[in-house]
Amino acid sequence: MLSAFVRAFRTPDLRRKLLFTIAIMALFRVGSFIPSPGVDYGNVQQCLAAGGQSDLVGLINLFSGGALLQLSIFALGIMPYITASIIVQLLRVVIPRFEALHKEGQSGTAKLTQYTRYLTVGLAVLQSTTYVTMARTGQLLPNCDVIPNDSFMASLLIVITMTAGAGLIMWLGELISERGVGNGMSLLIFTSIAASFPPALWSVAGGNNGVQKFVVVVLITLLVIGLVVFVEQSQRRIPVQYAKRMVGRKMYGGSTTYIPIKINMAGVIPVIFASSLLAVPGLIAQFASPESGWVQWVQRNVVDPASPLHIAIYVVMIIFFCFFYTAITFNPDEVADNMKKYGGFVPGIRAGRPTAEYLDYVITRITSAGSIYLALVALIPTIAFLLLGISANVPFGGTSILIIVGVGLETVKQIDSQLQQRHYEGFLR
């Protein structure tokens, strides 16, 4: 991996792309520390030192690189765009027009991207309004007055600033995808999560038995990263043969290829969905009286990460969303029809409906193993940290590791493919 980066910086064109990508990532981090107008930055820092935010807010704050709880201009981070992209992708199942646009190729994809941008702005307005309201009522940072001016215009200015920041982040991510290296949105998420690691390690090392806990945390993290890399690189290759056919005087086909099916086809989406939905009851309970019986039951059984009910619901939701998201992103009938159209078939399986049934059978078995793997990755760090007495908000959970490893592997693959294009050696030298 390191040799690939060294060779990349020796190539002028690729070096410019890498430096451009790094510059955008640095600009994204700088914007995370610029407070929105009307926010008392000194009170924010004092409140952050006290802690006490909810799990859902902590998850969103992780994806924004700590910008949310600082109420900066980039407080919303990349979450509005991620949510909009997932919604548009899910709407393909409900709205036939979206599915038709998806099948139109580049022009249809451009139209869906435009819809995603509009939805991102709308979600940014909704989320920024929610966060400003939570900050003014003390739900975002408990017992803290971070917005001294309670006027409507002051709150509106903060909402406009955060919405504009979300739009700017979306533009920066698209710039990386067009002119840089890798997927821009994924790299910005990678930047946000990676920026949270140094202060988290520092907090672990500064507590009781800090050195021992620090070593154990690093070893557990490396072990989980190794497991994630091994599984994410694993594939189930379904062989596909194409029959020979004559078109005019030329013969086409006759080649052999394969369909690569990853064990974890859903990626980190099931973990994000499960974490977000599981944190909603605790968020609702914050608006009720702490003395209520149902509020105490929710805090004790649903919000507490060490609760058996919390762990059970978490695992069930991850497995469910694994199957749900895989069923949306991979359509066996569509793949079988495309193979049949171009004369392809799986050896030993008839083309058409039998091929679709075979692909569905393989996907179901692989997703079963992938969902269990995803649940284990999401739970192992949490359980280990709870046993060590470390805060559950330390950003070394399964979600963080899956994103960092996945984005890192994909970026290195893209760099390596571009290196092969520029340093291709033929038979003659």
Automatic annotation (TrEMBL):
It comes from the Bacteria. The keyword Amino-acid biosynthesis does not apply. The chain crosses the membrane at residues 71-95, 115-132, 152-173, 185-205, 211-231, 309-330, 372-390, 396-412. SUPFAM superfamilies: Preprotein translocase SecY subunit (SSF103491). It is found in: Cell membrane; Membrane. Pfam families: SecY. PROSITE patterns: SECY_1 (PS00755), SECY_2 (PS00756). The keyword Ribosomal protein does not apply. GO terms for biological process: intracellular protein transmembrane transport; protein targeting; protein transport by the Sec complex. GO terms for cellular component: plasma membrane. InterPro entries: SecY (IPR026593), SecY/SEC61-alpha (IPR002208), SecY_CS (IPR030659), SecY_dom_sf (IPR023201). It is a multi-pass membrane protein. Keywords: Cell membrane, Membrane, Protein transport, Translocation, Transmembrane, Transmembrane helix, Transport. The central subunit of the protein translocation channel SecYEG. Consists of two halves formed by TMs 1-5 and 6-10. These two domains form a lateral gate at the front which open onto the bilayer between TMs 2 and 7, and are clamped together by SecE at the back. The channel is closed by both a pore ring composed of hydrophobic SecY resides and a short helix (helix 2A) on the extracellular side of the membrane which forms a plug. The plug probably moves laterally to allow the channel to open. The ring and the pore may move independently. Component of the Sec protein translocase complex. Heterotrimer consisting of SecY, SecE and SecG subunits. The heterotrimers can form oligomers, although 1 heterotrimer is thought to be able to translocate proteins. Interacts with the ribosome. Interacts with SecDF, and other proteins may be involved. Interacts with SecA. Belongs to the SecY/SEC61-alpha family. This is Protein translocase subunit SecY. The gene is secY.
